[in-house]
Write a structure and sequence with these properties.
This protein is mostly helical. The protein has a domain of about 240 residues. About 70% of the residues lie in helices and about 5% in strands. The protein contains 14 helices and four strands. Strands 1-2-4-3 form a four-stranded mixed beta sheet. α1 crosses α2 and α12 runs antiparallel to α14. The longest helix has about 40 residues. The protein is globular, with a radius of gyration of 23 Å.
Length: about 375
């Protein structure tokens, strides 16, 4: 038995495996549809036909085709993912992980759709302005602008997007708030405040995170964590999150994300100018709005190929944050207790198959994290 597995009862292990097996076909199906739908529309004239049809509803101008095509692309993506998201939600509700009603879930979907359109429409319009001005070299300024946008969104996300989906209130004065702020001070990290997110409206899962940069940085704890975990366990969760700040993981991730996005746009630009692909998509050039679904298909391919690499990098970063939490608190036993509570409450499979880890896992397995804590203590 892998080290860390004996920290759980057979029933707890079986429950985590059962949830993983129930979710996996739907998670894989969602991934498959998210890739195959853009390919089917982007590598055939079907996508070009949709753009022409949607644009024709609004006058048939180039601008109408661009904006209507982007709207259709966003709507199709949202609709294609709905059955899988709904089924996964129902499975998780059966395990007591979902507290939100269907009405609240539907509102969240509409908020996500509105946000996607709010971002997608001006981005799509701006992209085709660039392609119109420079059909062959549009990707160069587009890559630079995409990198800037990644940095901007990383800064604005905790201030603008997070409040759309959760309400945040300051953690009341008391021992826990003092302990968390002291933890940040010992770590040499400036934290503006400690907030409580009303996650219990949606889930019973436990979590905490540190968001924002500089003067906007704050510790955010799920209310489920504060009402379920011991104060010392909450400190361990926050210590892990402070590790990301200490090692500048958010800043590094933002910079790498900006560079990766710029590179992806450059690759898209080169591929989208390839005549065989344009011919298959029914578009005359990258400046033709009918190339929209071709760009989406190529983007989906790049994203799918990068997924396992991103997961591997994330797992490495999370292992480093775990070590930071152990070094900051010097409490491996409480760290193990915290990992056990998170796994049991979140109904995690503590040791899933290797291929599942490679495809989906952004964190090390619970068994691996517990084993690493014991190795740290022994060393």
């Amino acid at each position: 038995m892998l080290a860390g597995m004996d920290d759980f009862t057979p029933d707890q292990l079986a429950r985590g495996r059962a949830l993983r097996r129930a979710q996996l076909p739907w998670a894989l199906g969602s991934r498959a549809v998210g890739l195959l739908l853009p390919l089917a529309l982007g590598l055939t004239p079907a996508g070009a036909g949709l753009v022409s049809w949607a644009g024709g509803l609004f006058g048939g101008s180039r601008t109408a085709e661009v904006l209507a095509g982007v709207a259709v692309l966003v709507l199709l993506g949202q609709l294609a993912g709905l059955p899988f998201g709904a089924r996964l939600r129902e499975i998780r509700r059966g395990y007591g992980l979902v507290t939100q009603g269907w009405g609240g879930w539907a509102v969240d979907q509409l908020r996500g759709l509105a946000l996607s359109l709010l971002l997608g429409l001006p981005l799509g319009y701006g992209l085709y302005v660039l392609t119109d001005r420079s059909p062959d070299g549009w990707w160069l300024p587009a890559a630079g602008l995409a990198a800037v946008l990644v940095v901007l969104l990383s800064f604005l996300f905790p201030l603008v997007v997070e409040p759309l989906f959760n309400r945040f209130t300051p953690l009341s004065e008391g021992e826990l708030r003092t302990a968390l702020l002291d933890l940040a001070r010992r770590d040499g990290i400036r934290v503006r405040e400690v907030l409580v997110a009303d996650a219990s409206r949606r889930t019973t899962a436990l979590n905490a995170y540190v968001s924002g940069f500089g003067a906007t940085r704050r510790i955010v704890c799920y209310d489920t964590l504060l009402t379920t975990a011991d104060p010392r366990e909450t400190e361990l969760v926050v210590a892990h999150e402070l590790g990301h700040v200490k090692h500048r993981d958010v800043l590094t991730g933002t910079v790498l994300g900006a560079l990766g996005t710029a590179l992806a746009v450059a690759v898209l630009g080169l591929l989208a100018c390839w005549p065989p692909l344009l011919s298959a998509a029914g578009a005359s050039s990258a400046a033709d709005p009918r190339s929209l679904f071709l760009l989406a298909a190529l983007g989906a391919l790049l994203s799918t190929a990068a997924g396992p690499v991103q997961c591997a990098a994330s797992r490495r970063i999370e292992r480093r944050a775990d070590r930071h939490a152990l070094e900051l608190t010097g409490d491996p036993e409480q760290f193990i207790a915290m990992q056990r509570r998170l796994a049991v409450t979140n109904v995690a499979d503590v040791d899933p198959p290797r291929w599942v880890v490679l495809l989906f896992a952004t964190h090390p397995t619970t068994a691996a994290r517990i084993a690493a804590a014991r190795s740290w203590a022994a060393a």
